[in-house]
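Structure ticket #2291
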Amino acid sequence: MRTILIVLWTMGSIGCGQAAASTAAPQPTQQRTAATQVHPLVIDPPKVDFGAVPPGARKSTTFTLRNPTGSPLKIIDAKPSCKCTDITPMKGVTIPAGGSVELQATLAVPRTPGKKDAKVMIVVEQYGMTVAQMEATATLPIMASPEYVEALKGVASGTFTLASGDGVPFNVIGSWGLPVTEAQPGSKASHAMTWTTTGVTGPLPQWVVVATDRADAPLVALRIRHESTGTLFDKDAREARQWFFADPLVVAGRMERGANQQLELDLESTNPAARRIPVREGWNAVTGATCATGGFACTLAESKLDGDFVRVKIDFTVDQAPSGLSVVPVTITTATGSGVIPVAVLVP
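Resolution: structure written out below.
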């Protein structure tokens, strides 16, 4: 599960330049906090559940912030803690007594299946924090349960189930990442799969990818949880170049020979302003995209800076690739270094 916090926060009566302690007599209004009273700001609706949505979708909603009190309420700021979620700028907005304002929020759903939560935490002057929530589940017609391969703390094998939500039978036709087997292959709506790390040499990959014969769900990806994956994967190199892949897998899906597809991926800064580490010039200047796997070709189509992110588009072509599941390493290069992201594709 991925969690994103969007913070709508309020500042108390002590200013940024004032000391926390003071000999002045405390003001009664300064003692009203979220810990001692119900927050006066009403969020309508308090939570939005987008339900099942396609991976990579962007879902938008509008929260109405109501002030039912007899005095104005001032929003000090509204900041998402993750750049993947966009909200209406609210800094300094005052809601009049009995009035309301609208907060628009957009949730960027991961390009791989799974649940994503977002919280918009709001702080209003003299009051405390209150929260607006969003959630969505990136869903394919075929889903894995559990959604992760748990290989932590020496666990070397395990199981997961692949099942079609609509009950339509399908076949498992290949896999990549770890050895994956099925006790009773065949066309059915639910498949019991077994994975193992035995015999895998070198660092574990970050993903297991399973191919099926279902046209609307040709590839299903499961993230591998292991001490060497996640934030530790490629750690030294990512710190040196000051960026990493926000979603470290691109699922191209089913592609015929001769087909071209424009794929999207995001580079995220490892060095936000809060770290106070000198920024390497050019970390966000993408200079190329290449793949050395025979039968495939890719070129850089576009890169666009968006805050701490670089939105990258690449043209990916299947040439004389072999039939079946391939996971193609694509190298993205900026002025500060290169990183490799796998692109999963099924060639019929």
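Closing remark: Helices lie at 235-241.
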